[in-house]
């Protein structure tokens, strides 16, 4: 790669990428201001604005919304209930019937975490969100894991749902710079992604080869059976149709999934970036910082983006599959891919975050990041570093993301301070969304169990409303 394309700072990052990911509890040394604590003392006035301790953030919510959130969060605070929520809902559905179950779930759990089923319901929810300064990132609740594949017809139906998501996101007036989420396993069999990941250890899959396949060339990929190759070509063309429909309209954030298929997912995503991200980041990749190799993967993708001259969009998360990853590693005798402690994960997250923020400060047109976290320290750290580096709060290069129905005290405070904030918004029927919500609840149960602060702020606001009713004073 030409030295003209490699900033001195990135050259130093690349030289230490293995060292920076191998040592637990060691702070990344690249950006001088990074710390494992996730808090930068620079510009304390800006950080002080983001205490996230003001219940006034919830004054925009109705009394029913406060009560609903408190009830749902109370339920979610019990690990046993979250672990078995899928079974509990199946029993409730059997006892109440489909209509009775929907009558119970729609105004509670469904309304807390889902935007609605019809386009009109979705639009109503999004207009309210927009009035609060928040932006929607629509998520079609479809995905597959190993053993769940049902044939090309199902994937074609999923493609139609994704294209409809692009249309809804773009046609509405309630979203500035709209985003949507996409899972590749909703369009390509997970089993094939696992096989590709295995083959990539021995075979070289060039990005140009995948781009040519997206363009309709009948490519024969090494190591695949004829039926697998045919399915892969169909899957790549499905993804190409979504990207074609979304470019210059909606930013598509591709989710990471499990380590046994992530390399294949990243390969496909980077090929999409090469084709569609020449002028701006319309396709984004997700990086799970609870994985030990996340820093080296990110740095390699930064290198690829410079080598192939495309823009890099990054969704930075801690990750949600820790228990399953560790259980699988133990069963198969693999090295545990997950950081050994929460502190190590925080250090990994904030270190990767600093790498991107420094790159954005040098070249904001080529790099973009969504800081997808409910962690208040990381949010404050981001806001402080943005101020130090001169990155605009709503300049388009850095934004924040949280889940719909959660962490509103963080989302609303950020929006009030002028930062770009997105909420991940699933939509669809009760039957379509509940399996998705169950998976998300079980994957994020540590987050759900740790929302005591949000519950306390909700109670404070509810008590304030009661006092106001009784005394007439706020």
What are its keywords?
474 residues, alpha/beta, eight-stranded parallel barrel, 20 helices, 8 strands, 55% helix, 9% strand, globular
Task: Describe the protein in words.
By secondary structure, the protein is of the alpha/beta class. Helices cover 55% and strands 9% of the residues. An eight-stranded parallel beta barrel has the order 1-2-3-4-5-6-7-8, surrounded by seven helices.
What's this model, at a glance?
With about 475 residues, the chain is an alpha/beta fold.
- How many E strands? 8
Strand content: 5-15%
What's the pLDDT, averaged over the residues?
A: 84
Termini separation: 62 Å
Largest sheet entry:
8 strands, parallel, barrel
Principal-axes shape call = globular
Give Rg in angstroms.
Answer: 22 Å
Number of helical regions? 20
Query: In sequence order, what are the helices and strands, one letter per element?
Result: HHHHHHHEHEHHHEHEHEHHEHEHEHHH
For the biggest β-sheet, the strand order reads 1-2-3-4-5-6-7-8
The assigned structural class equals alpha/beta
Helix content: 55-70%
Which stretches are low in confidence, meaning pLDDT under 50 for 5 or more residues running? Answer: 1-45
